[in-house]
Amino acid sequence: MRKTLLKASVLCLMLSGFISRASLFAQSDPTGKKPITSTYAITNATVFAKPGSEGSKATILIKDGVIKGVGSNLSLPVEAKVIAGDSLFIYPGFIDGASQAGITKPEDPKRPDNFDSSKPSDEIAGITPWRSAVDQFSIDGSQVDAMRQAGFTLIQIVPEGGMIAGKSALVILGDDKSTNVIKENTSLSSNLNGARGMYPGTTVGVMAKFRDVYKNTELTKNRTATFASNTGVVRPEITPTYQAMMDVISGQVPVLFEVGNDLEVRRALSLKNELGFQLILTGLEEYENVIDLLKSSGTKVLIQLAVPDDKAIKAKEGEDESEEVKALKARVKASYDKAIAQAGKLEAAGVPFAFTTIGAKPNDLMKSLKTMIEAGLSEEAALAALTTNAADILGVSKFAGSIESGKMANLVLATGPIFEEDSQIKHVVVDGKIFEYETKAKKKKEGAEGSGGAIAGTWDYTSETPAGSSGGKITIAKDGSSYSGTITYDDPAGSGAATSDLEDISYEGSSLTFSFGVSAGGMNLKVDVSAEVSGNTMDGSMIIGEFGSFPISGTLNPTLIANK
C-alpha cells in the first residue's frame, strides 16, 4: 500500500510539472538514432591509465565497446570518429561497490489473517535471499543519469529489502537498449536491521536468525547429498530460502554485510568467523576504532562516499552565545573532523577500500571525496577506491578499473585534473557509448559569503517536465549570517499553488543549496536543491529521494527584495 501511494504521489508531481526528466544531462545522441559507427578515437588527451600513474598525452582507440589501443602513435582505422581530446583529462570509469541507483523496492507482502508475530514467514520477516536486484533495476531512472554524470560506469546494484534482502548484481550504466547486466548473483545482501513488530526485531535476534538460516541451509545441503546417493532416506525439505543460500555456504558468493559503526563491524566479523562465509563489509560510517581489526582480518571494505553535514560548524558565532553553546559547537567540529579523516587513516593503515554510494546524493559525491582528500586521504588512494580497488573487491579487474588494451571502454573525460576545484566531467564513456554533459565556467569561492551574486529576494523559477514547463517563486531573506525562505509550486492535488518553507539554506562561492518538503498523495517527499548562481540567474538540479535529479532554473526579480 505504501509503495502504491508513493508511486501515485510521484505521478501527481510529474503531471503537475513539478519534476522532470533530467534534461540537463544532454546525452551524445538526443535524437535516439543509432550511431553510425562504434569506433572512436579520442586523440591527444592527458591519460591517467591507473592510480599512481603520471598523466601522459595519448590517443585511445575504442571499437565495439572495447579499448583497442592506448598510445601516441596509433594507426587509426578510416571508420573511426575522431574526438579531439587536447584539453581533456581521461581516467578509468568509476566503479560503485554497492549502489541502489535505479532500484525500486518491491511491495511488502500482505500479512495473513492468522499472522503470528513470533513466527512470521521468511518473506514477511525480510528474509528473501531468492530476490534479485536485477528484477528491481531500471536503466531509465534519473538516478542512473545522475550517477553516470558523476563518472560512475559500473556498479554493483543491491536489492531493497530486509535483513537478507537478496542477490546483488553487476551492471554497467550504458545504453538503455541493452540489458547492461555483467553478472547476476555477485553477493548476498544482508544487514542487522530487525523486522518491525515481529521476530527478529532486535540486532541480537537478527544475528540469531541469520545463524539459524545459515546452519539449516548447511543441513539441507548435506541431507540433499545423502538423499541423492542412498535409498531409504527421508527426503529433505528444500525451501526457497535454503535453495538461495546454497551459493553462500558453498563459498561461491560473499555476503555483502551492511554495517554502520565499529560495534556492527565486530558483530558481522563474529558471524563470519563462526560460520565461515566470505565477507564484504559495506556502508561503513564510523570505523576509526576498528581499523586495526579490519587490517588484521583482511576483510574487504566499502566505506560511505559521504561526509557529515558541516553547516553547523560553519555557522558564525553570535555575540550572545553561551559557553555551553560554544562547547557544543567545538564537540560537533571535533566529531566532524574525526569523521572526514577516517578514510586517510584507513589508507595509512594499508587497508585497501572502495566506496558505496547508498545514502549519498549523486551531486555531492565528488564534493565528499574532495573533503576526505583535504582531511588526509591521498589523491592516489581516492582514485584507487573509485577504480582499481573497487575492481579487485568485485572481482572485475580483468576487464575494468584501468585504461588498457582489451578492457571495457569505460572512461571519464574531465576538463581538468579530476580532483581540482573547477574540474568538470564533460564526457563519460560506458561500454563504448559516449555520453556528453554540459560544462560551465565556475567562479572561485571568495570567502564564506557567496560571490555569485546576492540571493536575497524573490526568484521566478521553472522546471521542464514531460507535461511542459511549470514553476513558481522562491523567496529568500537574509537575517544576519543566516537565510530563511519559502517556495511555491503547483499543488499535486490540483488545488492551485502550494507553499513550503526552505530548510538548510547555504550559499558559498556561487553555490546555493536548500531543501524543502512536498506533500502529495498522503506522502511527504523531501526535495534537495543545488544550483550555481551567476548574477541574477541560477541553474541547477533538485533531487527527490530515490527518484533522482531533475533540472531547475531561476531568475531573480530585483524589484522584490527580501532582506530583513
Structure, explained:
The structure is a single chain. It contains 12 helices and 25 strands. By secondary structure, the chain is of the alpha+beta class. The strands form 3 sheets. A 9-stranded antiparallel sheet has the order 20-19-18-17-25-24-23-22-21. Strands 1, 2, 3, 4, 5, 14, 15 and 16 form an 8-stranded mixed sheet that branches. It has an 8-stranded mixed sheet with strand order 6-7-8-9-10-11-12-13, with helices on both faces. α4 (203-229) crosses α5. It is globular and about 90 Å long.
Task: Report the major sheet.
Answer: 9 strands, antiparallel
Report how far the terminal alpha carbons are from each other: 45 Å
Morphology call: globular
Q: Report the helical percentage.
A: 10-25%
**Uncertain stretches:** 1-11, 13-33, 444-449, 560-564
Radius of gyration: 25 Å
Number of contiguous helices: 12
Structural class, by secondary structure, is alpha+beta
Question: How are the strands ordered across the major sheet?
Answer: 20-19-18-17-25-24-23-22-21
User: Would you report the number of β strands?
Assistant: 25
Strand content of the residues, in percent?
25-35%
Let me know the average pLDDT. Answer: 86
